[in-house]
Each structure stands twice: as structure tokens, then as C-alpha cells.
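Exercise 7. Given the encoded structure of a 209-residue chain, write a plausible sequence.
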């Protein structure tokens, strides 16, 4: 399997510790991707593990009551870090079959003692039309794609919540199109001491008659 590790690039402490392959920058033109949204996709580049932990820990949630979803998960580094927390499930959504295969391999290798969630998977799917889990969900997005795809994803999420309302948190790192989330009528931006735009959706409390 190709690793797309850049020549001369040193391995991160994370990959050295866990013998995984999450490093490198992979431009999407190098990959076989069949999607009408290919041109809007942003290259693969992994998030910093400390940032991923800070993003999870800053949210007022019990991981046991949430599914963690990385939209545009690439080689799956955030999935591995999220599995250190007792989420119900950890899911990555990635439209490149090649990156998805590397992520699946990483998930198999990452059997560290820190792992608290065993239901970890990387799904080959397009974020523009992927069906969301029915449970409370923490979404993680590291600037994965352009405005059209983000808009579609938000419309799909709002439709999904209309059929089955539930709690949602969304951490949007490098939030270039935050205005779309800011102007949505189902997400509220909340303050968080991390470099990301963070949002929440809580179902309204039904008044007791
Ligand atoms: C900047 S990388 C983020 C990787 C990972 N989330 C992390 O933080 O380590 C963006 C990823 O989004 C993926 N992507 C872009 N458009 C997508 C789409 N429409 N559906 C699914 N994945 C997409 C790219 O292939 C790439 O792997």
C-alpha cells in the first residue's frame, strides 16, 4: 500500500509511538476519487493530536453518550485519538478510497492501552450525501471542503434532526466557511478555549402540560 510519505519528511512522534501512517500532506490530484465534489475537497493533512484531545475535552459532553464523527477523516488520525475516549462509536467519513484504506490499516494497528472505544471505523463515503448516525454526535471538521459541500451537509443534518432530534456538537477547525454555520437556524456558536469555531444543537425542552 502506498503511504504517500514525502521524501525526507521525518515521522511524527505520533506515528513513531503507534507505528501508524498518519503523516504527510497528500494533494487530492494524486488520488482516485469519484465524486462530483472532488474539486472542492481540501488536501489531506492531519490534525495535531493535542488539538484533537483539547477539542474533545473542551466540550461539555459525556463521551459515553455520543458518537464521534470526523467528516473528511483522511488517514484517520483523529479517529485514533478519539478512541482514547469512551465514545459509543468513532466513525470517519472519507471520499478517497486510498486514504480510507490507510485509515483502516491504522485502526487495525492502533491497539494501544489508551484505547477506550473499540468500535472505530473509517467509511468510504461523500460527506455531501452521507447518512448521519441517529445518536447524539460530536462532529469534527478540519477544513475538509468548500462551501457547496458544507452547505449540503448542513441541509442534510437539519433534515436528519427534524426526523430525530438529538444533541450535536461541531468543532470546525480552520473554519473558512464558518458564516454558513453562523447563519444556520439550528446551530448555536459557543465559546471554547481552542482555535476552532464550535457549535451546539440541543433539542428544545418540551413543556410539560
Ligand atoms: C485537511 S484533511 C483533514 C484530515 C483529518 N480530518 C484530520 O483532521 O486529521 C481533509 C480531508 O477531507 C477529505 N474530503 C474532502 N472532501 C470530502 C468529501 N466531499 N467527502 C469526504 N471526504 C472529503 C479529503 O480527502 C481529506 O482527507
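Solution.
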Amino acid at each position: 500500500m502506498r503511504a504517500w510519505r514525502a521524501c525526507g519528511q521525518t515521522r511524527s512522534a505520533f506515528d513513531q509511538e503507534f507505528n501508524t501512517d498518519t503523516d504527510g500532506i497528500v494533494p487530492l490530484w494524486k488520488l482516485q476519487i469519484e465524486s462530483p465534489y472532488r474539486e472542492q475537497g481540501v488536501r489531506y493533512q492531519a490534525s495535531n493530536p493535542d488539538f484533537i484531545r483539547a477539542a474533545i475535552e473542551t466540550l461539555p459532553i459525556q463521551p459515553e453518550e455520543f458518537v464521534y464523527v470526523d467528516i473528511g477523516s483522511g488517514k484517520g488520525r483523529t479517529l485514533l485519538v478519539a478512541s482514547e475516549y469512551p465514545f459509543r462509536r468513532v466513525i470517519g467519513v472519507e471520499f478517497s478510497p486510498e486514504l480510507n484504506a490507510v485509515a483502516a490499516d491504522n485502526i487495525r494497528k492502533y491497539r494501544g492501552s489508551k484505547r477506550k472505544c473499540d468500535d472505530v471505523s473509517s467509511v468510504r463515503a461523500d460527506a455531501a450525501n452521507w447518512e448521519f448516525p441517529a445518536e447524539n454526535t460530536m462532529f469534527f471538521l478540519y477544513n475538509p471542503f468548500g462551501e457547496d459541500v458544507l452547505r449540503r451537509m448542513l441541509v442534510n443534518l437539519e433534515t436528519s434532526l427534524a426526523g430525530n432530534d438529538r444533541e450535536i456538537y461541531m468543532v470546525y477547525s480552520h473554519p473558512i466557511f464558518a458564516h454558513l454555520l453562523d447563519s444556520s437556524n439550528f446551530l448555536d456558536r459557543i465559546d471554547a478555549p481552542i482555535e476552532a469555531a464550535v457549535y451546539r444543537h440541543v433539542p428544545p425542552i418540551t413543556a410539560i402540560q
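Remark. Residues 28, 35, 37, 41-42, 44-47, 70, 72-74, 77-78, 93-96, 99, 126-128, 142-145, 149 surround S-adenosylmethionine (CB under 6 Å). Students should compare their own answers with the one above.
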